[in-house]
Amino acid sequence: MGNGMWKQEARDLIEEPSQSNVKLEDQRPQGSSFSIPRHAWVHRRSEDFDSYKYYKQQRADIVKYGPNPIIVLFGRVGLHCYNLQKGTNLQYLSVLNVDVWMTSIFSYCITLEAMDPVDNSIYEFKAQVRYAVENIDCLSAITTRCRLKPKTPEEEDKYYLWNKDLVDDFYKGDMPEWIREDALTGSDKLQYYEMKDSDLEEVQEENEWLHLYAELALFKKWRSNKLGALETAKPFEMKKIVVETKENVESKKKLKAENAIFYISFKTRCGRDCNCIIRKTTDGKPGHFLLKLSVSC
Predict the structure, then answer these.
(1) Among residues 109, 118, 41, 122, which one has the least CA distance to residue 78?
(2) Hey, which of 30, 46, 247, 267 has its CA 20 to 30 A from 157?
(3) Which InterPro entries match (predicted)?
(4) Residue 200's domain spans which residues?
């Protein structure tokens, strides 16, 4: 596939993943020091594909070897989308199974277990997440379905294609540059909100998804060949978080706005300083949510 076509598909992220039989490559993290047999974390399709045996083997592999860290990362992205839209705080527990399509983008259908800390109830949760690296500096991740199981017949029928035309023009185009020094005091200051030091101390517990954004930034920077290093880089020290919105809404509400741009400075446990920009948008449909990010470390 030509580079131009690859970039176009990655940029739009609206074409539905092909349902045709596709043989996918080994999805294990490269350079892993663990002795994992080749059948684990491999997603293959053939004409005699048996879905029952496939998922049975897959669940056994996940129990024995653990899920691919990439699947966990994007499963949590889907859970974050659901929490943001539903006002819940479901927490990731484990991956149950996953199906993968790969064209010029990666498409995941992930089923996981999540817990509601309010009453410790356990739910099965399903998310469809796609991601692509548009160029060396930018990654896009989109959710097109996020919901609990079991599903009602009505929920089963509700599926919407991503419509990029419904995204506000303010949040389209190239990613913005790092925040200007006078942004918080200039004429557009009402569009910005900088989290206070006391708020940053609460991020880990109350806004854990901001740490998820930092993980996505490092994933973009290091890619799959350093997923083990991603774990050793945590926990992060959040140094500065500024949120920008087109709308002039109450300061803390900017954090949960449907459309927003985040400027995040953080330090890894190893002492490495990173700056990332995350643009979060939606087309207004349930389960739809797009994160686009760039990072420098």
Answers:
(1) 109
(2) 46
(3) MS5
(4) 166-296
